[in-house]
Write a structure and sequence with these properties.
This protein has 375 residues and is mostly helical. It is built from 20 helices and no strands. Helix 3 crosses helix 8, helix 3 packs antiparallel against helix 17 and helix 15 crosses helix 16. It is globular, with a radius of gyration of 29 Å.
Length: 375
């Protein structure tokens, strides 16, 4: 009987190598997902970045809003409603043909984007922001590009993240509430067993939802880069290194013809840039868990800036750059914040010293110069 009690544990508990089996590992993974929120600064960067992108997009198209989404658009609200019946989309912009109603919706959309950037009541504002992006995207579905599609997906994913816990008005309000001490309602909730259990369950659910949403964001970007790179590999022009030559010679993507001609005059540069584009897109999903990730992110930043300038696609490039920022760790953003605060403090100290010397408003009197004593 004693030998039976001291026998080795069952295979379900310990494996052949003495390590725990998959069941404890899964339990630890579930506990990790609901224990601590990850990438809070990265989620805030996504919130600020995509809020700014869509706000700038709506401001840029302000003079042409009627022709794109309004009642004067060639794609009339009736045609849009007919398409919605087939696709299942929905847009509040088609509820009325009144120009006043459309301008009111446009102003509310700008206000929601601004509140998203500031991080005011982000739980509700993120849902409203997703509704704004979906509404404008569905209203003119045939005028969208890859940047619009990515912003639409990210706006939906951000509704599940805790993107207002850093660099937001919500975070500032929380700090002020903690500094001011607990209120009577908060003290009652802390002493109540029912509310304590409710807050614990709510915190676990919010944390798990945030971590899963950030994981979906990472998977989405990896799929985007991986599929784009594998698709390019199959093309003969990318294999020969001449794909970018044809790209910079397309009239539709030549906002600066002289700059495009200058880039095309260096065939070796065009070929190397094409091969590097394919390489970093294919290697991106496999380099996320190594230090090579930072090199690839820097190269992707240069690539997207080149796309914005040479091809005239600033919204697409900005959307991709913001998506890439989700892979930077929180310690990077904390260090960047400290460096920014130090730079601002140094600049504030230098500004008064750089000004002209102050002169006395009242000239010195005779008693101050010693003339009275000599007399």
């Amino acid at each position: 009987m004693a030998t039976e009690k001291t026998a080795t544990p069952a295979p379900a508990e310990v494996g052949r190598t003495g390590r725990p089996e998959a069941r404890p590992r899964v339990g630890g993974l579930i506990a990790l997902i609901g224990h601590r929120p990850v990438s809070l600064y990265a989620a805030s960067v996504l919130r600020i970045g995509y809020g700014l992108c869509y706000f700038a997009f709506l401001v840029r198209e302000l003079p042409h809003r009627e022709e794109i989404w309004g009642p004067q658009s060639p794609w009339t609200p009736a045609l849009a409603d007919e398409l919605f019946r087939q696709t299942g989309w929905f847009s509040p912009l088609t509820l009325s043909d009144s120009p006043l109603y459309f301008d009111l919706c446009y102003g509310l959309a700008l206000a929601v984007c601004a509140l998203m950037v500031l991080g005011w009541r982000t739980r509700a504002t993120s849902v409203l922001f997703a509704l704004v992006v979906v509404s404008f995207h569905a209203r003119a579905i045939f005028m969208t590009d890859g940047g619009d599609n990515l912003i639409l997906l990210m706006a939906l994913y951000l509704t599940g993240t805790a993107c207002g816990r850093r660099w937001s008005l919500d975070a500032r309000r929380t700090r002020l509430a903690v500094a001011g001490g607990p209120r009577r309602w908060a003290m009652w909730r802390a002493t109540s067993d029912t509310w304590s259990q409710f807050d614990l369950a709510r915190g676990t659910l919010v944390t798990a939802l945030h971590n899963c949403a950030m994981f979906v964001v990472a998977v989405q970007v990896c799929l985007l880069y991986g599929s784009a790179g594998l698709y390019k590999v199959q093309g003969p022009s990318w294999q020969s290194g001449t794909a970018l030559h044809y790209v910079v010679n397309l009239d539709l993507f030549r906002p600066w013809p002289a700059l495009s001609a200058l880039a095309d005059s260096h065939p070796l540069f065009i070929a190397v840039a094409g091969y590097l584009t394919v390489l970093i897109q294919v290697a991106f999903p496999f380099a996320l868990f190594s230090r090579l990730k930072y090199v690839i992110l820097a190269m992707l930043l240069g690539m997207h800036l080149g796309i914005a300038v040479l091809m005239g696609l600033p919204l697409f490039s900005a959307a991709m750059i913001v998506a890439d920022a989700a892979f930077l760790p929180d310690r990077f953003y904390r260090s960047a914040g400290r460096l920014a605060r130090r730079a601002v403090a140094r600049l504030a100290r230098r500004v008064p010293a750089a000004g002209p010397p102050r002169t006395a408003l009242v000239p010195p009197q005779a008693a101050d110069t010693g003339l009275v004593r000599r007399r």
